[in-house]
Amino acid sequence: MSFVYEKIMGGKKGLIGFIILAALILVIFPLFLDSFRLNLVGKYLTYAFAAVSLVLLWGYGGILSLGQGIFFGLGGYAMAMFLKLEASSPENTAIQSTPGIPDFMDWNQLTELPWFWEPFTSFTFTILAILIVPAAFAYLIGSAMFKRRVGGVYFAIITQVIAVILTVLIVGQQGLTGGINGITDLRTLNGWDITSDSAKNIFYFINAALLLMVILASRVVLTSKFGRILLAVRDKEDRVRFSGYDVANFKIFVFCFAAMISAIGGAMFTLQVGFMSPSFVGIVPSIEMVIFAAVGGRMSLIGAVYGTLLINFGKTTFSESFPEMWLFLIGGLFIAVVMLFPNGLAGLWDDYGHHITNKLRFIAKGFSKLVPQSMLRKVEDAR
């Protein structure tokens, strides 16, 4: 019981924060938002997976990745490939010159399905690919970088370059990937229509539940011995190395774990929104994910979710009201938060939250004095 309370829930403070977040995304949003807005929040929550992964990687590991969109995109494309093949049955594509293959392949004069697309006819393989392919790619990058003690700003730049290369590859191979348009016109999941409002609402709850599970799993990792060593690596890497630990292996593991979390978000994005394109793989989305974590608090798993929601609400509001200025406004919001509240929203609550709780206690005491003592005794007797 104490393991669940201390390690998974994070003690009293962590439990309260988790319950408030769960109530917000599982109860309050569905009650007060219409289907369109709820689907929009569902899209924001898919980005929160990447923000949570950056808390692990950047906040606790001290490893700033500016290419987290790579893994978000790999997860999203894996799911999109399965859905596209299901939508490209010979009956649905009878008007094409080559029925049975995705429409963009037919437009680019391909006459058969590429070999690496064929396994994605299996839903089980697709689920495994969403988890394993990004982790394997992260392992290759991590091994190449961390074994050679490449870190800091060099690692950040290299991950950004890899994001650019992957984007260029996806855009350039239009016949294999759908090019700049991405993979669109996704209709069913194992025969279930995923374009209806009811399906989007169901995906929202699955998305929210998965995000809460990822937060709990991340807490288990961070409160374990591995998490303590990861913090030590961030603060005193040489001391940890001289103590006999292989620092590179710790970094590789957390990089792979963060990649898997981002990939789950990407796969849910494809289901929630209904397409995947290279615009979610490159530099801009990767930097936005860092902003989500920074605004929410790079040392807070739950703060990262609030940061993602706040930035995306602002982005949607600004882009609707000030379409030419919203990028500047978002940039200004990021600069203001980082300069005034370097620990993000979570740090703001840590610094000033006790004032609010003290005032609430004061109000509660004042209210109790207004209530006649005889009434309080009756309540106690009734208990």
From TrEMBL:
Q: Per the UniProt record, which residue ranges are transmembrane? A: 15-33, 45-74, 120-141, 153-172, 202-222, 243-269, 289-313, 325-345
- Give the principal location in a single coarse category: membrane
Task: Please name the InterPro entries in this protein's record.
Answer: ABC_transp_permease, ABC_transptr_urea_perm_UrtC, LivM-like
Which membrane topology term applies here?
Multi-pass membrane protein
The record's subcellular location field reads: Cell inner membrane
The protein's UniProt keywords, in alphabetical order, are: Cell membrane, Membrane, Transmembrane, Transmembrane helix
Domain of life here? Bacteria
User: Which ranges of the sequence are coiled-coil?
Assistant: none
Q: Which NCBIfam families match?
A: urea_trans_UrtC (TIGR03408)
The name on file for this protein is Urea ABC transporter permease subunit UrtC
GN (gene name): urtC
